[in-house]
Queue: 2 jobs
Job 1
Amino acid sequence: MHLTRDEESILAGERGPGMQRAMEILVALGRIYDADSLVPITSAHLSGVSYKTIGEGGIDFLEEISKDARVKVETTLNPAGMDLSRWQEMGVEEAFAKRQLTIIKAYGNMGVTTNCTCTPYFTGNSPKPGESVAWAESSALSYVNSVLGARTNREGGPGALAAAIIGKTPHYGLHLDENRRPTVVIEAEVQDEITDYSLLGHVVGQRLGAAVPYFKGIKPDCNGLKTMAAAMAASGSVAIFHVEGVTPRSLDCDLKGLERVRLDRQDIRKAKESLTTGKDPDLIAVGCPHLSQMEMKALASMLDGKRPRSDSPEVWFCTSRTVRTWCPKETAVLERFGKVVCDTCMIVAPIESRHECTATNSAKACTYLPSLCSQKVVCGSYAELMERVA
Amino acid sequence: MILNGRGISKGTGEGEVLLLERPFSFLGGVDPKTGRLSGTSGAEGSELTDKVFSFPCGKGSTVGSYTILQLRRERRLPAAIINQRAETIVATGAVMAKVPMVDGIDLALLRNGDQALVDGERGTVDLRGVKGHRVVTSLLMHQGRLLVLKRSDKVSTCQGKWAGVSGYIEPGEEPLQTAVKEIEEETTVTGAKLARSAATVTVRQGENIWAIHPFLFESPTDQITIDWEHTEYRWVQPSQMQGLDLVPGFQRVLADLGL
């Protein structure tokens, strides 16, 4: 990989140990993936935020690097292990909360926006078409590549942080046109319903792994796209997809000679059954990825005027702090039935200490809840889940 | 013997090689408190602390990078990491925790217990106590048949095994020069014409690593005279090699020469 004189001097440590370490990470990645150079980025999004995942080792590293390194571009954070202000209500222990806040502070010291969400593109960190960026969080980076038309590889937390500090990322993979073209056509026939889009994404990821799918026959809105992206990245490792007439570059795609796969409502139904491993949820959690303003409104109108069921399990509506601020009326309605939880979600919060079976409408959450949170799972649509609540 | 790879994470580290055959996930693969490997690693109970930890590549959760940091916190880090092909999780973890790391090394050349010095700046692995040898192996072909020779008990290595025309490359000599010289010495054939060569094949045998330069020559004759280095010879079809007790790496040499 070619480095400019300026980049060489950073690598040699002339701008301090924090930038040096960041440059070492980028150079290692560039070598591994045969990048020719570093390319400037306009934004970054970081994973590696929850104390549950990064632990004391992660805190050591963040405290070291945040002594002198600062981010050069707009940089946001993935969800943390708790609501940063209402962690007590969530049943999070004080020892965990203290360490979680230490992590957030270290990121804040580096100039990172400490609004913890997996949908930063709804709340201000929204790259423009054609821009290069460095995003971690598989669901968000797929949304950025596919729906926004900006370019990012599947970054890990450390690689994205290093890129944010240097303001550049190695030029390879999905920064190159040839790796963004569709490799398979999916002819899908599903209900226009957000959970069905999630399940469709799940089936595609599971069957095709790391493909670049091109969807025909569906017209998801941004919420459908968000949940599809999340599910495909979780069950496979899809980092970019196209939807005919919906995503920005879809009409330029050449489909000649591509394999075609048909998926219908049967496939969706089977996926839903296979993801369901439990029966009686003691937690209902929606907002994976975090609820948008539109979803908050839709859920509030489903529940408005109703009474909470006496046998309703605990309910979490997971969203970003910004969206909660934008939706005071909806929040008031939803809080009669459960908690509008910010900065976190059912996957990264330590729910396993208090819950055994979680119901959700997200195929991504259904994929990770058993392994990361030791949960049994019930998969249902918003309507089905809200019936258990009101 | 110094093996050349690519530097991934700088610094130098020396220790005993701990070698895994399978891809490795730091998350779940090691207990960061003890440095002890779990069952999924294929080397359950081994400790990676202070070892030159060698495995084909990383796999599994990206949280693995943070497991490496946790090992650092517990002072259980390996002395260095060697991969066949590095990927993001282990590479970023190694850089963050300042563990020297090199990739692009053929792990078939390493043995558990080797003493190795890893230089993450230069991208090299120095196997202490292992000697490297540069040799040529030439196949002579005459009318579709290949010459194989049985090594005598007077040669220093691989006695009694079948081989091509082989010899050490002397300092300052080009491999092709050595090949031509050895053919004349060992078979008396002159005027053999080079048909093909192949990339160097490296094989480990005991405390030796052989870097073999393979050549294929067309021989104008099948009338040869052997010297003290061999006791027998045969002209055989490539398919007839299977039954012979061959020197290490010979099958690779044949395959790489397209035979």
Job 2
Amino acid sequence: MSDITEKDVAHLAHLARLKLSEDEVKELYHHFQIILDYVASLDAVPDLKLSAEPRKSRTHLREDEVGESLSAEDALANSPKVRKNQFVVPPIIEDME
Amino acid sequence: MSGGGRPTALELAAEIRAGKVTSYELTEEALARVEEVQRNLNAFTDVWAEEALLRARDVDSAIRAGRLNTPLAGIPMAIKDNICTRGFPTTVASKILCNYIPPYNAFAYEKVLSAGLVAVGKTNLDEFAMGSSSETSCFSAVRNPHDTEYVPGGSSGGSAAAVAGGAVPLALGSDCGGSIRQPAAFCGIVGLKPSYGLVSRYGLVSFIPSTDQIGPMATGVADCAALLSVIAGYDPRDANSIPGHREDYLSVLDGEVAGLKVGILRDWLLGVDKGVRDAVEAAGQALAGLGCEVEEVKLPTSAHAVAVFYLLAYAEASSNLARFDGVNFGLREGDGGGLREMLEESRGQGFGAEVKRRIMVGTFILSHGYKERYYKKALSVRERMRSEFEGVFENYQALLCPVSPTPPFKIGEKIDEPLQMYLADKFVCPINLVGICGLSLPWGETENGLPLAVQLIGPVQGEGTILRLAKRLEEVRANE
């Protein structure tokens, strides 16, 4: 059984910036139990010994060169609030703890 | 001809080139069927009636002028609504992106445009492609064309239903943990999940970037191969795109299959539905009849695939979906308060239950004190699985197994039981975890007339081999 509490779930919602109702927190708490119990089966799988040679990366980096990109107009077109070519957000300072 | 006696996309395209029919006429017919399919199955999130006809007219002129001679030019098709289409809404079936109009095209969509295909609209899906039943869409559930009380599978359920329902012969889907193959199986069509990096992820709304792939869905194997040839290719805008040339998947279809070694994952058949089990055994016998060496193989760590897959899905989703914050695009709520309130309200109201669940569990398993136990453990087991698959592919060219442990289930049957829904992916998600390719091939039906299917799996860039095997098996079925 996982040691997570309903209070932890509410805290996670805060970390994830998700406003949840009390019912949603209760339901998620229930699902956390089921999911974490299920994935605990992985504890039985021994860890792989890391080989001396790391796996060749499949990610390739490009040269840091200026290329084509979206125009400011396109980049702003989907924003819910724009002023003078800038994204507008609510006040941040009041929000700091 | 494909199953059901309809001409294939390749046959129709040949008729267009021969001047027997026009893309405009086919698109008009498709749009009429789209309307019917939409009414019965809710397969589309948006239909582009006017634009599609204008485009079909342009494609017809290009073909007549000899400027367009590609194998699928003029064919109407559908695009899953998590693939960005410039100037047309791309909603991911989520309230949070319901007004989003991308300023650019996905690589795969650019490719179908330049190959002369005609998109008639965007198809419905599970919200953010998170689901196995296409029930979590903010546009409500998609229905299975074989029986509307059943799910079409997911998350590419709209694409599968659109093709199986006869609206269009081809569609693009995406598959991060089975989302092309399982709906293809549930709807009785062919769907292929390409090797990771074969098709660029550029412009695919990201859910699990380490497994996401766009792929083709079609009524038959040859059409599926033709569409794969259109969309496969190197793209520097996807850092995981496989460099180099791609095969012409259509031209390799007729090669020899005798002598190929195919491993059958018989221990995966324990506890699965009898119809599914019988289909896999029958396909194994058919492969043996074609001269393949069919032998039993084992991949023991795959028993943990669902746990590994969902841990990574949660983690990657929680990190990826942080970008939906009501600032750059998407829904904004709670604007009257401070920044935090705006973020929490926008995300709280914009995301549906399954998306929230994944963000929440992901936030937990990436948090201090739990990351080693859950996230790193999942990565370690994933590497073990990868080693096992690589070992098997040293001796075998393909594997045979089920797609889904059960035939299609009813709408509402699993939606409140997330773990039961996740377990529907047990035979499809291992393929995404290790980056290889898989194909779902229709194989008979249940007593109630619902489709059954088998899965062929190939190594990285083994698409040519599994398509060739699927083509032979399709011929065996057609002659039965």
